[in-house]
Automatic annotation (TrEMBL):
Active site as annotated: D98 (charge relay system), H171 (charge relay system), S501 (charge relay system)
Any one cellular-component term (Gene Ontology): apoplast
Region (Disordered): 156-176
Gene Ontology terms describing biological process: proteolysis; response to symbiotic bacterium; response to symbiotic fungus
Inhibitor I9 domain span: 3-66
SUPFAM superfamilies per record: PA domain (SSF52025), Subtilisin-like (SSF52743)
Record bears the keyword Chaperone: no
Organism of provenance: Cajanus cajan
Keywords: Apoplast, Glycoprotein, Hydrolase, Protease, Secreted, Serine protease, Signal
Pfam families: fn3_6, Inhibitor_I9, PA, Peptidase_S8
Taxonomic lineage of the native organism: Eukaryota, Viridiplantae, Streptophyta, Embryophyta, Tracheophyta
PANTHER family the UniProt entry points to: PROPROTEIN CONVERTASE SUBTILISIN/KEXIN
Assigned protein family: Belongs to the peptidase S8 family.
Protein name, entry field: Subtilisin-like protease
Length: 725
């Protein structure tokens, strides 16, 4: 700050007025960045970027949401001495950046809670339909951030959404109660998934930061939310939000999360719902825990019986008046529409005369699944069968449809469509079977879960792991019905929805449990414990499946595997990392001092005498891209060797760990040196290297392996993903 100014706010305002006399500051930032947000024309923004003292001017972006049997499925219902005491949990505060909260829910009951932790500095902001008494000893804070949203789209319309931390969407309430909802007996959605609903850590405290509105999540609001969460004193940040991949110094979630990490806060984010397409990930910064989605051992089956007598198993949450027992006429939507994409059942696309009283077959894609059912209903259809194409495979996502409807996997869908196209009088029946438990195999990777490889930094493997994200029961807003459609007048306290948005809070709160048990562990150590203890196979030894293709999933799908919270409490060894190592990571990316300053908010110059390599960054997994260009290593068939180094920290008892490599192919020779590591003391560190030698392979080839260190009690596992480009 120039000496002519007495405070930063005056300096900021003077800088802004030099570019635009009429512009006003929306937010000033203390932690995420040293600066402010405002509304400018492109010309004014360019002028401001040339003003002395301005590091960068970044355009606003809009991000999107990545839209209770799971404690039992994860083993958290077991009475075990491994689980930390609830009083340790109650000192942990989880910050949720999302669409807000419906504070009246029983899931936010604070009857069993003691005083709010003395470290807490947050507050319950008053606003439309929300006041200070909306918070309690469970929901200890609620803030809202709308200035960026309003600058982009105009003032919040209080007739359609609350200008406060109140949740009018449902997404935020669902993620919050998934993470840390208090136990509620006899919870269900229309009698489905009935039982006691509770979050993963029901004794943890929660704080809400509403940064997402009906029109989206704007980066200036997200930055302000992260800034306040750091200041308020959260221990874990959970964000089921994402956008397109940007360089780390341009990505506000990456920048804000770096600051949070440097304050000892673990940040968990959703991987995105772009699967099963390859390289479809969001939120790939190595200081962020990136979470994909898997299924649990519960589903909601529906029988679809064709006129031939053949029966298929689909899925549905429909709970209204059932169809008659008699078969009904069946029609393919594409044959009942004048639109070239009529098969998608888009709004006003169906011809009433061709669908009235019939079951309509609609294809997935193009618009929300529940909206397709509404389109069929409005056109006079009696029911709907939602069929999967290749992109969705055998994935069955259940929905609370407004008419009798069920979804069907790809193989069954193909048979059904052949029947509809070949029969002169096709008919079908749909029967709804309620809730089924102990479904196997489970988990399987959800088709929608975004996949690697990491397009931004190919030598960092993402996602980090998967957690339950399909058909998850949790709390819901009172503002909209379970479908989220404006015509849905049903009001529920719980809803069942799917997405990596649902898997993210599972991991956020498991991180909170680890933080409660091990307060001294860094965010990197906590993530390492979750990753190295994750499992990649079923009890019968077979690899976790990918439901998109029915084949064995890979580390590009599930990262280190499916989270195992009980094992994570005692990982034996961890791959730790501090701020200095992340700064070295930036140097390995050849970032300039300016780019490092933008990403990390500190002055740092890379040492020209030191060699910085991403291969040496201390990550719990390995991504090894090989180039296939002719001439590398003396010719296209010449062997190429790359070496990675890692450091393990002992967080358990003394012992000797031996390395073993499990490889699914002979395409790469893997050598670990040394093959034994002995630890005598707590927090002792030992390094090792891994050499990977491969001859050239066709571009697009992938292969996978696994490295494990074991002392006979602990298994410290790391996935290895090879790719040839």
């Amino acid at each position: 700050m120039p000496a002519t100014f007495t405070d930063h706010l005056t300096w900021f305002d003077s800088s802004l007025k030099s570019a635009s006399p009429s512009a006003e500051i929306l937010y000033t930032y203390k932690h995420v960045a040293h600066g402010f947000s405002t509304r400018l024309t492109p010309q004014e923004a360019h002028a401001l970027s040339n003003h002395p003292g301005i590091l960068s001017v970044t355009p606003e972006l809009k991000y999107t949401l990545h839209t209770t049997r799971t404690p039992q499925f994860l083993g958290l219902d077991k009475s075990t001495t491994l689980l930390p005491a609830s009083d340790q949990q109650s000192h942990v505060i989880i910050g949720i950046l999302d669409t807000g909260v419906w504070p009246e829910l029983k899931s936010l009951n604070d009857a069993a809670f003691g005083p709010v932790p003395a470290t807490w500095k947050g507050e319950c902001e008053t606003g439309n339909n929300m006041n200070a008494s909306s918070c309690n000893k469970k929901l200890i804070g609620a803030r809202f951030f709308s200035k960026g949203y309003e600058a982009a789209l105009g003032p919040v319309d209080s007739t359609t959404e609350s200008n406060s931390a109140r949740d009018d969407d449902g997404h935020g309430t669902h993620t919050l109660t998934t993470a840390a909802g208090s136990a509620v007996a006899k919870a269900s959605l229309f009698g489905l998934a009935s039982g006691t609903a509770r979050g993963m850590a029901p004794q943890a405290r929660v704080a809400v930061y509403k940064v997402c509105w009906l029109g989206g999540c704007f980066t200036s609001d997200i930055a302000a939310g992260i800034d306040k969460a750091i200041e308020d004193g959260v221990n874990v940040l959970s964000m089921s939000i994402g956008g397109s991949l940007l360089e780390y110094y341009r990505d506000i979630i990456a920048i804000g999360s770096f600051t949070a990490m440097s304050h000892g806060i673990l940040v968990s984010t959703s991987a995105g719902n772009g699967g099963p397409s390859q390289a479809s990930l969001s939120n790939v910064a190595p200081w962020i825990t990136t979470v994909g989605a898997g299924t649990i051992d519960r589903d909601f089956p529906a029988h679809i019986t064709l006129g031939t007598g053949k029966t298929f198993i689909g899925a549905s949450l429909y709970s209204g008046k059932p169809l008659s027992d008699s078969p009904l006429p069946l029609v393919y939507a594409g044959n009942a529409s004048n639109s070239s994409v009529g098969y998608l059942c888009l709004q006003d696309s169906l011809i009433t005369e061709k669908v009235s009283g019939k079951i309509v077959v609609c294809e997935r894609g193009g618009n929300p699944r529940v909206e397709k059912g509404l389109v069929v209903k409005n056109a006079g259809g009696a029911g709907m069968i939602l069929v999967n194409g290749e992109a969705y495979g055998e994935e069955l996502v259940a929905d609370p449809h407004l008419l009798p409807a069920a979804s069907l996997g790809q193989k069954s869908s193909e048979i059904l469509k052949k029947y509809v196209f070949s029969s002169t009088n096709p008919t079908a029946k749909i029967q709804f079977l309620g809730t089924h438990l102990e479904v196997q195999p489970s988990p399987v990777v959800a088709a929608f879960s975004s996949r690697g490889p990491n397009a931004l930094t190919p030598k960092i493997l993402k996602p980090d792991l998967i957690a339950p994200g399909v058909n998850i029961l949790a709390g819901w807003t009172g503002a909209v019905g379970p479908t989220g459609l404006t015509v849905d007048q049903r009001h529920v306290s719980f809803n069942i929805i799917s997405g990596t948005s649902m898997s993210c809070p599972h991991v956020s709160v498991l991180a909170a449990i680890l933080k409660g048990a091990h307060p001294q562990w860094s965010p990197a150590a906590i993530r390492s414990a979750l990753m190295t203890t994750a499992y990649v196979s079923y009890k019968n030894g077979e690899t976790i499946q990918d439901i998109a293709n029915g084949q064995a999933a890979t580390p590009f799908d599930y990262g280190a595997g499916h989270v195992d919270p009980v094992a994570a409490l005692d990982p034996g060894l961890v791959y730790d990392a501090n701020v200095d190592e992340y700064l070295g990571f930036f140097c390995a990316l050849n970032y300039t001092s300016l780019e490092i300053k933008l990403a990390a908010r500190r002055d740092f110059t890379c040492d020209p005498k030191r060699e910085y390599r991403v291969e040496d960054f201390n990550y719990p997994s390995f991504a090894v891209p090989f180039e296939t260009a002719s001439g590398i290593g003396g010719g296209s068939d010449a062997a190429k060797t790359v070496k990675y180094s890692r450091v393990l920290t002992n967080v358990g008892s003394a012992g000797t760990y031996k390395a073993s490599v499990l490889s699914g192919s002979s395409k790469v020779k893997i050598v670990v040196e040394p093959q034994e590591l002995s630890f005598a003391e707590l927090y002792e560190k030992k390094g090792y290297t891994v050499s990977f030698t491969s001859t050239s392979m066709p571009s697009g080839t992938t292969s996978f392996a696994r490295l494990e260190w074991t002392d006979g009690k602990h298994r410290v596992g790391s996935p290895i993903a090879f790719s040839w480009t």
